[in-house]
DNA sequence: ATCCAGGTATGCA
DNA sequence: TGCATACCTGGA
């Protein structure tokens, strides 16, 4: 058990109720956070941190060994470097009660900015899985193939590390058919050093087109990776939940996934991805 | 036990 | 283009 730093505010710009903080880090954007003694403990990149809310102020602390590193990363990671006030305001909440309702329900909810490579990985694990299963797989991948950050807590393996893991070992980690895709993707990425860094910097449309060349990455997973791991707020991932929710709310009952995605991008505009997150959260009770 | 789940790739009309 | 089907496996 390591010694933890003192609690400090993440940034003046990030304030929200406690249950919204939980929704932010453990509501399906990221998969390595868990409730822990009045706050949440999570892992990303080579960082480990706990976060909590005190009178609406989001605070963090980290193991002292890595405090400096985490301190430099935490604000960017939870989306506190992005100014969300004008972004919330730009969403069509005045004219759209179906959006207004979850925006009132989850005040302060934002989009995280996670390491791109591991966001791609986590969402490649997510197809046809429920969140608890995805979290379990990510944990197993980290434990078996990732570097130990502090005693007992492991980072996710990066793509270079994954390249040295056999498909059989990946299957044994609970990945099922996703193992073949992840293995093939790691092979592709090993032959293209820096490819992910370039894609991350591309404009949304181009980045998505490139990302979908990776085996196991279709439109939905590409959109999730770009929204949660590359700051592309116009990305609008449509999964079965969003399809269902929007089917009910906007009378799109038997529209195809791609049609719903198009509707969302047009209706919600340049920050459609944030609207998507509110709608996704609305499926859940607070 | 049997069914389905935060999709994607592939094979036919 | 457009739809149907297989794909792994754990949890309800």
Question: SSE layout and pairings?
Answer:
Blueprint: E1 8-9, H1 18-26, E2 33-36, E3 39-44, E4 47-54, E5 57-61, H2 67-77, H3 85-90, H4 97-105, H5 116-124, H6 131-145, E6 148-150, E7 153-154, H7 159-162, H8 167-175, H9 178-190, H10 195-201, H11 204-211, H12 219-229, H13 240-250, H14 257-268, H15 272-282
Antiparallel strand pairs: 1-5, 2-3, 3-4, 4-5, 6-7
Helix pairs in contact: 4-15, 5-12, 6-8, 8-9, 10-11, 11-12, 14-15
The chain binds a DNA duplex (13 and 12 nucleotides) through residues 28, 123, 126-134, 136, 171, 174-181, 215-221, 224, 237, 239-242, 256-257, 280.
3D structure, described in words:
The structure is a single chain. The protein is α+β, with helices and mostly antiparallel strands. The protein has three domains: 8-80, 2-Layer Sandwich (TATA-Binding Protein); 91-106 and 232-286, Orthogonal Bundle (Endonuclease Iii, domain 2); 116-229, Endonuclease III, domain 1. 51% of the residues lie in helices and 10% in strands. The chain has helices spanning 18-26, 67-77, 85-90, 97-105, 116-124, 131-145, 159-162, 167-175, 178-190, 195-201, 204-211, 219-229, 240-250, 257-268, 272-282, and strands at 8-9, 33-36, 39-44, 47-54, 57-61, 148-150, 153-154. A five-stranded antiparallel β-sheet has the order 1-5-4-3-2. It has a two-stranded antiparallel ribbon with strand order 6-7. Strand 3 and strand 4 (47-54) form a beta hairpin. Helix 4 (97-105) packs across helix 15, helix 5 packs antiparallel against helix 12 (219-229) and helix 11 (204-211) crosses helix 12 (219-229). It is globular. The two termini are 32 Å apart. The model has no long low-confidence stretch (mean pLDDT 97). It binds a DNA duplex (13 and 12 nucleotides) through helix 6, helix 8, helix 9, helix 12 and helix 13.
């Amino acid at each position: 058990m390591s010694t933890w730093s003192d609690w400090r505010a993440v940034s003046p710009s990030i304030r929200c109720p406690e249950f919204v903080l939980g929704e932010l880090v453990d509501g399906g954007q990221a998969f390595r956070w868990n409730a822990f003694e009045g706050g949440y403990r999570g892992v990303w990149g080579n960082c480990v941190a706990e976060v909590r809310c005190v009178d609406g102020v989001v605070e963090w602390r980290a193991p002292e060994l890595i405090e400096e590193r985490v301190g430099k990363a935490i604000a960017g990671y939870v989306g506190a470097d992005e100014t969300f006030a004008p972004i919330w305001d730009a969403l069509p909440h005045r004219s759209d009660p179906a959006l207004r309702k979850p925006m009132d329900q989850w005040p302060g909810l934002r989009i995280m900015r996670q390491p791109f490579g591991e966001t791609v990985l986590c969402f490649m694990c997510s197809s046809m899985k429920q969140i608890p299963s995805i979290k379990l797989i990510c944990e197993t991948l980290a434990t078996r193939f990732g570097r130990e950050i502090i005693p007992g807590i492991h980072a996710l393996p990066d793509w270079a590390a994954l390249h040295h893991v056999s498909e059989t070992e990946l299957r044994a980690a609970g990945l099922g058919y996703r193992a073949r895709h992840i293995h093939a993707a790691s092979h592709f990425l090993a032959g293209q050093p820096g490819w992910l860094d370039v894609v991350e910097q591309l404009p949304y449309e181009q980045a998505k087109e490139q990302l979908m060349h990776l085996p196991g990455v279709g439109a939905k997973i590409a959109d999730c990776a770009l929204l949660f791991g590359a700051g592309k707020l116009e990305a609008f991932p449509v999964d079965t939940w969003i399809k269902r929710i929007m089917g009910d709310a906007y009378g799109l009952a038997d529209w195809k996934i791609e049609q719903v995605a198009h509707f969302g991008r047009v209706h919600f505009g340049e920050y459609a991805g944030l609207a998507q997150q509110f709608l996704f959260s609305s499926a859940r009770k607070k």
